[in-house]
Amino acid sequence: MSARLPSAVPDCIPEIALHAPDGRPWALQVEDLSVSFGAARTRVAALDGLTFRLRSGEIGCLLGASGCGKTTALRAIAGFVRPDDGCVHIDAQCVASPQQCTEPERRGVGVVFQDYALFPHLDVAANVGFGLRRRSPAERAQRVREMLELVGLPGAGARFPHELSGGQQQRVALARALAPAPSILLLDEPFSNLDPDLRERLALDLRDILKRAGTTALLVTHDQHEAFALADRIGVMQHGHIEQWDTPYRLYHLPATREVADFVGLGAFLPGIVEHDDGQSRVRIELGTLPIRARTDQAIAGAAANARGEVLVLLRPDDVVHDDASPLRAEVGRKAFRGAQFLYTLRLPSGTTLLALVPSHHDHAVGESIGIRFDADHVVTFDVETASQ
Fold it and tell me: Which of 191, 268, 307, 334 lies 20 to 30 A from 106 at CA?
């Protein structure tokens, strides 16, 4: 069973709302968390005001490059690192702040480590049941069977870790972490030791397992494909803080900053001019004039434009459609075969390059001119001066 959490600390951050809009406590709440390492004069900030929240049963992800602070965040939530400022709440109970740091084993948190950390001298059943030593033998055996069924390894209890594939070991590590029914499950780059072809499939399997168990989970990874396959909410991290905490769809199609747009997915940035006429707004780029239909897009474009109305427009590869009938032409500069699709790097007459995903039965040669058009339901713009920094 999960350990009982301590009561909330009054001076943690008393003004924060510990409950979601639906009235239930946030399953995980991280508020203004700061952590630094090193001596006083050479202290380096690993986390700087990190803030995010997860509802019960949600799967979150901290996504970022090496050194952005995502693993430090996971360790602070687990209880292995004490914060300098801010706090961590689990089910409305404060477990970490500068004033207190609840022991890891009393937080009700399960952890799946990068190397799985299975005990090589114990069989699978003993590994899964390791955290159930306070239960009776019959209860422990029943829970182990349930967990092995859940992760798709029924009947594997008598095998040893060295007899399993990497994917199977990962499932055993997950079963062991889920067995005590933790309030939060933390996953530290759980697929990094697996072949790339296996990662996305296992990420989808893991999502199904967590949803069936109703487990709230937080993943840290540098791989956006893993994040997209697994998470309900993703925070793109840079320099110890979150640039944007959002759904995978919105991160890709509506990135809040140039940094998020660059990190999540492929794309090209074309110069544009914001124009207003008869109450309508549009952006003129080399590909033509793009209407701004949504009020939010119009507000963002207006705020991003400088005195001359200049902006940068983000075009994702799926925004650029191959169309032989289009009068707008582009030259194929490079192409990468991806099975069902080609990723073409295209050069416009001005020399500007952009990317396009094209069904692979349209096999055009490098140097060939093809017809293209723009097709997207919204326009994403960024400030020219900020974007160039």
Answer: 191
